[in-house]
């Protein structure tokens, strides 16, 4: 009797890991100034919207915060398709962060990394999920990005109203 060769490739049950699409954005009225962050999480037919803000912040801080808050809202490990219009976030996570960590959170010019508190939190948040990063052009009609932008501005409005 001839046996079939064993499949040496591990079988991965992709159905056991949910795929969530996340769209994030940050906003700031003045830089620094009152700022907001927004995130739209989409899973199948379900959507969840998140927003918040800070009284005295920068746009870059709000962009990073949006991603941290969105990933933190997930209750279990997920496959995440993450969309951002921030080149700062994209370059930071894909190019700069590994180098910053190797240099002890210093830039190539040996200066302290700006927003290191948020980059450290983002680094931790990303490790909890399988994240695939996508850059989208802001204010270009991308529905998920437009909604995240509206949520970020809602976060600014909440801060201005004292909430």
Give the mean pLDDT.
90
What distance lies between the first and last C-alpha atoms, to the nearest angstrom? 74 Å
Class by alpha and beta content: alpha/beta
Number of helices: 4
The count of β-strands is 5
Task: Provide a brief overview of the structure.
This protein has helices at 59-72, 87-102, 116-127, 143-160, and strands at 18-28, 33-43, 46-57, 78-84, 130-135.
Structural overview:
The chain is an alpha/beta fold and 163 residues long. The protein has a single domain (18-160), classed as Ribonuclease H-like superfamily/Ribonuclease H (Nucleotidyltransferase, domain 5). Helices cover 37% and strands 29% of the residues. The chain is built from four helices and five strands. It has helices at residues 59-72, 87-102, 116-127, 143-160, and strands at 18-28, 33-43, 46-57, 78-84, 130-135. A five-stranded mixed beta sheet has the order 3-2-1-4-5. A hairpin with a 2-residue loop joins β2 (33-43) and β3. Mean pLDDT is 90; it is low at 1-16.
């Amino acid at each position: 009797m001839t046996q079939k060769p064993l499949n040496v490739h591990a079988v991965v049950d992709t159905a056991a890991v949910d795929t969530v699409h996340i769209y994030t954005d940050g906003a700031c009225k003045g830089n620094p100034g009152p700022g907001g962050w927004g995130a739209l999480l989409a899973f199948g037919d379900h959507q969840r919207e998140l927003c918040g803000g800070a009284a005295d912040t920068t746009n870059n801080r709000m962009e990073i915060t949006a991603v941290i808050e969105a990933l933190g809202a997930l209750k279990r490990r997920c496959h995440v398709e993450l969309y951002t219009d921030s080149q700062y976030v994209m370059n930071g996570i894909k190019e700069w962060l590994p180098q910053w960590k190797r240099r002890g959170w210093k830039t190539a010019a040996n200066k302290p990394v700006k927003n290191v508190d948020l980059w450290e939190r983002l680094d931790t948040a990303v490790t909890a999920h399988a994240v695939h990063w996508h850059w989208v052009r802001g204010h270009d009609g991308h529905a998920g990005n437009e909604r995240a932008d509206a949520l970020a501005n809602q976060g600014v409005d909440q801060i201005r109203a004292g909430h």
